[in-house]
Amino acid sequence: MNHPNSGLYHYCLNIGLRVNQQLERERKEPMKMYVPKAEKFSFAKPSHTIVEKSWHKFFKPFMIGCKVWHAPFQSGRIVPDKKSYPDVKVLLTIHDLNPLHEGKPLEEQKKSIAHTQSLIDRSDAIVCISEFTKADVLQNCNTGNKPLYVIHNGIHRVNIPSQTKSPERKIERPFIFGMGYVNTKKNYHVLLPLLKHNPGIEMVIAGRLDEPDYIETIHKTAAKMGVSERLHLTGPVSEDDKAWYLSNCMAFVHPSLAEGFGAPVVEAMLFGKPLFLSNLTSLPEIGGDAAFYFNGFDDEHMQAVFKDGMQRFHNENMSSIVINRGKFFDWEKSAAQYLKVYQSLL
């Protein structure tokens, strides 16, 4: 939980809070979260957290009496050693095997899979956050006879603003909106021709500017196309600003090359706007019939998908379809499923 603007942060936060809410209703002992110092008070009560200390590298008193350890990430670093803690059952959540789908060098792919496999080998059960991720794991890793579950993430509910105050950044035309780390994997540069073909719109992308070289390429390409003044890379934004953008955009765009789930897409569903996604990895599973898909990234195809999708969305009044799709992804339901998996390990 070192990166508050990340999907993994919200995953850990929501699972921890919802599981403990259900345990409290059942009058059972709460689950404790192992967190960095800054997150000591993030889980309702300080007694629900164990703050990481530098000396924990050598001695982990909190492992004494621990029955189930949930490792929340396939690239994580903290998984109990079976030799030192033979009685602790380990549940591993695998979000994605994205390095296989991002065009990474082969050696980097092998290194990533080897690390994930090492965690699988030290686990007693596995959760994948989508059917796509499960299929990817079965194809590329050896899970042996370990139980393998699919539990979708819930929706991070962005509060719809009661006031209409806009962010400081001026948006003067109808705009399309995307959010997520701005890097090669997210593939935002392929959207620039939409600005060229639609001179009456702007584009806002919110999220950490993750790769300086990629950001520079986007700006140079936008300048060549003559659309720079209508492109806004905001960096991270507040929850209020995010809500304003989602409430006021004409469409949400997410052309990512690789997603284990696609949390920004589910956040956007709450607002009932047109969704335009790539057709890669888990995104068709998450978007279902509520989204429109880019089957490639050439200019003419993307413009046709965008134009036809916008027309169909309004002709068929699809807003309620999008909102109802978002309701399918519920943290309460996900937490109940995780509790069943924890209990199966006891």
What does this protein look like?
The chain has 346 residues and is α/β, with parallel strands linked by helices. It is 37% helix and 14% strand. The chain has helices at 7-25, 106-121, 131-140, 192-197, 212-225, 239-248, 263-269, 283-287, 299-315, 319-327, 331-345, and strands at residues 33-35, 49-51, 68-71, 89-94, 125-128, 148-150, 175-179, 202-206, 231-235, 251-254, 275-278, 292-294. A six-stranded parallel sheet has the order 9-8-7-10-11-12, sandwiched between helices. Strand 10 (251-254), helix 7 (263-269) and strand 11 (275-278) form a beta-alpha-beta unit. Helix 1 (7-25) packs across helix 11 (331-345). It starts with 6 loop residues before the first helix and ends with a helix. The mean pLDDT is 91.
Question: Brief description of this entry?
Answer:
Strand 11, helix 8 and strand 12 form a beta-alpha-beta unit. This protein is α/β, with parallel strands linked by helices and 346 residues long. Helices cover 37% and strands 14% of the residues.
SSE layout:
Layout: H1 7-25, E1 33-35, E2 49-51, E3 68-71, E4 89-94, H2 106-121, E5 125-128, H3 131-140, E6 148-150, E7 175-179, H4 192-197, E8 202-206, H5 212-225, E9 231-235, H6 239-248, E10 251-254, H7 263-269, E11 275-278, H8 283-287, E12 292-294, H9 299-315, H10 319-327, H11 331-345
Parallel strand pairs: 1-2, 3-4, 4-5, 5-6, 7-8, 7-10, 8-9, 10-11, 11-12
Helix pairs in contact: 1-11, 7-10
